Amino acid sequence: MYYNISYRRGFPPKEERLFVLEELELEKFIEDYQSGKNTFFYNGCKNRIEDISHVEIYDVSKISFKSKQEYLEKIIFEQNLAKLSKVPFNLAEFGSFVTNNYIKGSWGYKKQKSSFFTVSRTNIYVDETRIDELRNIKNDKFDYAKLIRLCEELNSSYSQSNFYATGMLVRAIIDHVPPLFGYKKFEELANHYKSDGTEISFKKSMLSLQTSMRNISDAYLHSHIRMKETLPNETQVDCKRDLDVLLAEVVRILK
Q1: In angstroms, what CA-CA distances link 9 with 31, 51, 56, 65, 131?
Q2: What is the C-alpha to C-alpha distance for residues 34 and 109, in angstroms, rounded to an integer?
Q3: Which band of pLDDT confidence, cut at 50, 70 and 90, is reported for residue 114?
Q4: CA–CA distance, 157 with 237 (Å, rounded to integer)
Q5: How far apart are CA 106 and CA 56, in angstroms?
């Protein structure tokens, strides 16, 4: 049996299709989809699959053909005909919808099990449940892929005691999120944003990120080489609680 796949990715969503996959090729696509891979190599080409928001899988049970090449030629002909006639090319005309037999979750739902991002529960910076909440945000006003990746790379760096990278990634996150709250700079967010019901405590956490962590990361980024150095340690880069307060508020306002 062969399979066709249609999926949408990016923002705004763009439809892409893969045609005439064999069973093993489909299994590889599903594996890459589950683990949150950015690309899927098929038919001599690297196909981008990151941040898939919608996916459909069809078999080809409704038509008969002598070879894979014959079917592929038919598909290409129908696709070109659809472009000329401006009538959508529907994969359901060639086979049955079998998506539910293979897709059991959103893109990357098994990603935390991948080797690069696997860290112990006691040695992470951003709680995995918080990252999952970010992945599950359905608000389409912004693209959250970079924020999620920054959190993942922050966990990876922290778990390997890469404390320079840890401080810089925290800085990158707090500089990245202000537009979600309607501000251009994190300093404005820290001083003026009012969180419903937790205004005072939220502001304290944000000011801590703005003053302490920003100054520390600035030193990492901008200091010149010196005759003698002291290296950062875990205590110096620890603002996990304040950062979690920020990310929790991101999740809350975008639900």
Answers
A1: 17, 6, 12, 31, 19
A2: 6
A3: very low
A4: 12
A5: 12
Task: State the average pLDDT over residues 88-113.
Answer: 82
Is 75 within 8 Å of 93 (Cβ atoms)? no
Give the range of the structural domain holding residue 202, as residue numbers without chain letter: 115-254
Q: pLDDT, tens digit, for every residue of 205-240?
A: 999 999 988 889 888 888 898 898 889 998 999 999
Determine, yes or no, domain membership for 89. Answer: yes
Q: What is the tens place of the pLDDT at every residue in 51-83?
A: 898 999 999 888 777 677 777 777 776 666 555
139 with 83, same domain? no
150 and 33 inside one domain: no
DSSP string, 56-67: EEEE-TT---SS
Q: What is the dihedral of CA 168, 173, 179, 182, to 10 degrees?
A: -100
Own/partner contacts of 193-200, CB < 8 Å, gap of 24 or more, are 195/249
Token output for 142: 């912004």
Measured distance CA(62)–CA(60) in Å, rounded: 6
Query: Does residue 159 sit in the same domain as residue 242?
Result: yes
- Please indicate whether residue 250 or residue 11 has the higher confidence score (pLDDT): 250
**Contact in structure between 221 and 171 (CB atoms under 8 Å):** yes
In the chain, the number of structural domains is 2
Does residue 7 share a domain with residue 34?
Answer: yes
Main-chain phi, psi angles of 131, to 5 degrees: -65, -40
